[in-house]
């Protein structure tokens, strides 16, 4: 880490991407790196995935995001951040107007972290891509995220794969989509949602959202407590027979069953 610190401390203003994936970094290493990031004027892409950073490392990253004005892409997948580690990051994004892509897959922050995320989405106007798969997010967390989505006007991609989304949570997602006109890609693959939950999401997306082009509902239904390898691959045959009117848009509804590459649902509107 000292070598990296010395390198970044020098006048390397041409360095725009820094990938330190699976480099055995820890919270102490991250503290040094984040201190440098506060003054670095060139790095726009940072990947720290697969390092055990923990909640302390998350706090250092949050502090850096408050002062950094250049970083646009931040990948923190599988960093053992938990709720205490992601909350400072989400708090920083209330005021950070630079970060556009954030990936926090496999960090186990659950509903507690998701509540902080929902509050952030209400205030952040820059983030466009958010990936939060495999974080044990249930109904309460999804409800908080859904409330944030209804107030957000920048997010285009939302990845909720392999969480604990149930039919009740799916209804919250559908309601949020009916009130949001920015999201273009939503991934709910591998959750505990059956036909009723899928219908709620689809109906919501077709009621008010005119930008959605890709809705992934694959590997549903997944029984609670089952992992990826045990997921039941169920063909979703029942879709709403009558679609609510909306502006013209072609939405791909994918069920990843191997039967087809997804069903195109043409939203009706303007007499077409």
Keywords:
272 residues, 8 helices, disordered C terminus, 10 strands, Leucine-rich repeat, LRR (right-handed beta-alpha superhelix), ten-stranded mixed β-sheet, single chain, alpha/beta
One letter per element, helices H and strands E, the order comes to HEHEHEHEHEHEHEHEEE
Shape assignment: globular
Number of domains: 1
Strand content: 5-15%
Q: What features would you describe in this structure?
A:
The protein is α/β, with parallel strands linked by helices and 272 residues long. Helix 7 links the parallel strand 6 and strand 7. The longest helix is centred in the N-terminal third of the chain and has 14 residues. Strands 1-2-3-4-5-6-7-8-9-10 form a ten-stranded mixed β-sheet, with no helix packed on it. The chain has a single domain, classed as Leucine-rich repeat, LRR (right-handed beta-alpha superhelix) (Alpha-Beta Horseshoe), CATH 3.80.10.10. The C terminus is likely disordered. Helix 2 packs parallel to helix 3, helix 4 packs parallel to helix 5 and helix 5 runs parallel beside helix 6. It has eight helices and ten strands.
């Amino acid at each position: 880490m000292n070598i990296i610190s010395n390198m970044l401390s020098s006048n390397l203003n041409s360095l725009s991407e820094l990938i330190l994936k699976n480099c055995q970094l820890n919270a102490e290493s991250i503290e040094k790196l984040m201190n440098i990031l506060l003054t670095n004027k060139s790095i726009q892409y940072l990947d720290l995935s697969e390092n055990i950073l923990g909640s302390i490392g998350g706090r250092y990253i949050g502090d850096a995001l408050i002062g950094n004005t250049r970083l646009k892409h931040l990948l923190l997948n599988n960093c053992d951040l938990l709720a205490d580690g992601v909350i400072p990051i989400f708090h920083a994004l209330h005021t950070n107007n630079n970060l556009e892509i954030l990936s926090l897959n496999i960090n186990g922050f659950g509903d507690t972290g998701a509540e902080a995320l929902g509050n952030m989405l209400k205030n952040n106007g820059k983030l466009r891509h958010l990936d939060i798969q495999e974080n044990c997010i249930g109904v309460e967390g999804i409800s908080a995220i859904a409330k944030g989505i209804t107030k957000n006007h920048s997010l285009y991609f939302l990845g909720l794969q392999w969480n604990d989304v149930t039919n009740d949570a799916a209804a919250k997602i559908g309601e949020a989509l009916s009130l949001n006109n920015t999201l273009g890609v939503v991934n709910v693959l591998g959750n505990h949602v059956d036909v009723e939950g899928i219908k709620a999401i689809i109906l919501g997306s077709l009621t008010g959202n005119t930008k959605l082009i890709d809705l992934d509902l694959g590997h549903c239904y997944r029984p609670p407590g089952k992992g990826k390898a045990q997921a039941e691959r169920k063909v979703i045959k029942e879709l709403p027979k009558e679609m609510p009117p909306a502006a013209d848009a072609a939405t791909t509804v994918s069920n990843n069953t191997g039967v087809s590459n997804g069903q195109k649902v043409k939203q009706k509107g303007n007499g077409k």
